[in-house]
Description:
Chain A is α+β, with helices and mostly antiparallel strands and about 70 residues long. Chain A has helices at about 20-30, 60-65; strands spanning about 10-15, 35-40, 50, 55-60, 65-70. Helix content of chain A is about 20%, strand content about 35%. Chain A has a five-stranded antiparallel beta sheet with strand order 4-3-2-1-5. Chain B folds into three domains: about 1-160, Rossmann fold; about 175-265, Helix Hairpins (Orthogonal Bundle), CATH 1.10.287; about 285-475 and about 500-660, no CATH class. Helices cover about 65% and strands about 10% of the residues of chain B. A seven-stranded mixed beta sheet of chain B has the order 2-3-4-1-5-6-8, sandwiched between helices. A two-stranded antiparallel sheet of chain B has the order 7-9. The interface between A and B is large, with 34 and 41 residues.
Amino acid sequence: MNLSEVKKGSIVQIIRIEGGLGIIKRLAELGMYKGTRIQVEKNSTGPLILNVLNCKIAVGRGQARKIEVI
Amino acid sequence: MIRCALVGNPNVGKSTLFNLLTKGTEHIGNWPGKTVECKQGHATFGKEKIAICDLPGSYSLSPFSDEEKVVVEALSKNNFDVILQVADACNLERNLYFTIELLKFSKNVIVAINKSDCAKKSKLIIDEKKLQEEFGIPFVKISAKNQTGINELLKQIIQSSKKPLSFKIPDEIKNREFIQFEKEIRPFARSLNIPSKWLALKLIEKDSFAIGLAENSKKGKQITAKASLVGQNIESSLKSDIGSHIAKKRYCFLKKISEKSIKYAENRKEFNADKFILNPFAGIPIFILILWLTFQLTFILSAPFSDLIDEFFINLGEFLGAYLQNIGVSGWAISLLQNGIIAGVGGILIFTPTIIILFILLYTLEDSGYMARVAVILDGIARKTGLSGKSFIPLILGFGCNVPAIMSARILDKKEDRLTTMILIPFMSCAARLPVYLIFIGVFFSQNQGLILLLLYLLGIILAIITSFLLRKFIFKSESGELLIELPKYHFPSWKVVLMQAKHQTFAFIYRAGTIILVASIFMWFLSSLPYGVEYGSKESISGIIGGAIAPVLEPLGFGTWQASVSLIFGFVAKEVVVSSMLTSYGVGEEGLTSVLKEDFTTLSAISFMVFVLLYVPCIAVIGTLKRETNSWKITLGATIYYIAVAWIISFLVFQIGLFLGY
């Protein structure tokens, strides 16, 4: 499934990120790359709020759809 | 003198540390030698002097936004003796990713682990000796807030500047082809004074800055073609894209280190204010409430101070006038002083308290961590109009002053988003336009003053939304970028940082009053007094003739007097000048303006005039900034013409519809 479908509170692992080199690198700098575990703190309307390496990150819904997780 | 660059992720307390280290020596300017603009100051420790250049917050040396480009440009063009990275103790692992980037680039990196007081509170244990051992570079624990560890940090900067460090960072790519490629570009890297390993890595990562460097050189095409080929081969042998591979390698390395040196405490249950602030239903009302409170507080808190300054200038004018007459100074000189200088400059300085308080409140919102949330709250609305939620950060700063707001649009990642946002900022009514509204509202409205003001601000916002929609539909046709932003922990704003930023803006305002507005006021006085012999500020004076020539264009808007026309022309210089020039051309002080305005304006034409002032070009400085930031005359001139046209059309509609309705 993709990140936008994950329920609030659950912890998931990233398995694939779709997108150009620029966005993949930026996500990596924020701690999100293939293999990382992230917690979804909020997923209702608008951007998702994630907890990555003890930081809160807001990710647009469109971007979240491009992040495959299990 | 030791030259030190200050870098770090956003929201790690970099500005607080910079203020603490430089203690009032800071100024914004070009770093000596090279044209990189940064905030700079100096610190002294013993006999050594350390010049510090504060660079924008950044996550890596691969620029994602134009703001981050400033960092990598500054580091590659200047040979800094030391790079000081400020890292947040509470999420050190993520911060150390940037450290690795820096170490690929420079041998002299020091890490200051900031907020160590906050780490202690949340029972987080960091072994900086172990970190030092593993990385091979100095780590110093500090707290910029409590001012601890600063002397040790300065000592370390001086020590490190003397001898290059020997750090131990593993190579992410050990492929033979890559090593060969790195050897090939060595002469090129040396000519740029950049480490070849770093450049080789960035080139195969297709980093825009590195490719830009290569393309500017003679062998550019050859190098980038080779880089792309090597990159492809590496990717197929790794069975992964290079970006992910590098990230994985680095985080593996960091994980090993952090297991040895960082002990995380159990997660404490904290009060989560985001439950309310980011709530889909409550978020927007809370945002509007905060914005409304900001403006209300600005007026309530500043009014008594403004009245005091007002009284001071009235008394000063009368006192000086009487005194100079007594000692026999000629009439024209007294008129220049009273009608020109004191009326013009004094009329503006009255608003200093308003400006100070507005900026303090805006920067408090930014420093507390709320501004980043605004981007999240408004992202949904923003996307419908073709913007990104992040656009709202520069837009809200625009209420203070449009010039720094346009520059702060650099935080936007996508070019089209950035251009659209910059063009919208002038619709945000800046503090300089406030004096004009306050005077007109004071004269023409005894009730609902706050409401009228709010409606003016709203009109600007609505026109910004419409403009954004049009721009995305017809000119910058692309989807706005997806939101990706770190939400910093809420914290009590650092008053030192907030006050320093507010001080900069307020000084800029007072400086304008003492320079541009002073000159404009004197110039206006001459235009209103010449040719010799005419009555001061009459229709026969030069300004009367100029104003009279333009007045017919403004007639359908309801303010076709020459005084209004002249004041609007002078308003191009700076919006505050509209007030000053009215005071000079009517030849009255603040207190006399009420009666003359009531003669020349009706309530309806006063509204139309305020709308025009809101919408037509903010000032020359904004146009200059727009040109510099867009790097395009076409966009700048197009936008300028658009602002004037919109102003004329909307004022026309307001006035004519008002007349039709019988006002």
